[in-house]
Hints:
alpha/beta
Amino acid sequence: MIALIMAGGTGTRFWPVSRKDKPKQFLKIAGDKSMIQLTVERLNDAVKPSDIYIVTAQSQVDLVREHLPQIPVENIIIEPFGMNTAPCIGLSLAYLAGRIAPSESIVVLPADHVIKDTGLFLESLKLAEQPAAEGYLVTFGIVPDYPATGYGYIEAGDKLAEGIYNVTRFKEKPDLETASAFLKQGNFFWNSGMFFWKYEVIYKAFEQYLPQVTARLEEIRFVWKHQNTRANIVDMYAKMPKLPIDIGIMEKAEKRAVIPVSYGWSDVGSWKALADISPADKQGNNLPAEHIAIDAKNNYIMTDKYVSLIGVENLVVIETQDAILITAKDRSEEVKKVVDTLTAEKKENLL
């Protein structure tokens, strides 16, 4: 089994801690190791370091080498710039062509997710082997424990085998009423963005459903063959459509399977999401060791200073050396707007 870890994101929702020179996947926000280190560590009992590939941005290659010295440098796939998951995965398939057998299994994982039960995670990968061998594109659906409106959903259909179901459809992020209906129906699962498939199956899917991407990939493979894999492919890559793999392929494919899983997963997509999986006191506060809280509930504060809270609820306050973020916890996903504004104002020192 080959593991492909997508690690080129910028983590804008974790500003002001996540910056261009050290984005979210390289931060220790979910333990004593960085997110990408935890992702690779989770695979230790199933995949050798020589079979783990990291696809990342040129600007993050040094960080990958620093955080993952056990990964061979030739296993680092350089994406010229961020596009979306379809171009990212397609580029990786082009890189892997000739390096692995066409029948090889590939598990595709984001670098910045939390999974608390590693044993169940590895069991789900073993379970995916059979449907993948039968030509299915397999995804992992998270069993929902509340009607989330921030995730896409996967509707499971007929049972293919124990713990494996046919995918009826993918649904984009719903409103609360729709999400509540999904939860009651019982066969809808959060789209985790994790996949398992055979190399030859997913490449054929690119040829069938995203021929415009495949054409660019063949151009890139030609350049790599006649120059090297560090050759300039910027112009070719820029012609790729900015599509997620879900829309580009998974929604169109005929043979799709979902494995429902429940192993303490979080995409840690915002400060609120981090707060939800972090230890808290009886009032729901996550605070520095030195603090006082009076009539304060459900706040998440990150600073090295003494904190005093009075009569506030559901706040996120993040302090770094040069910036402070204060937001309502339920609006923490909007931090990206701050980054967009800073970018428009060309305040590079804060990015």
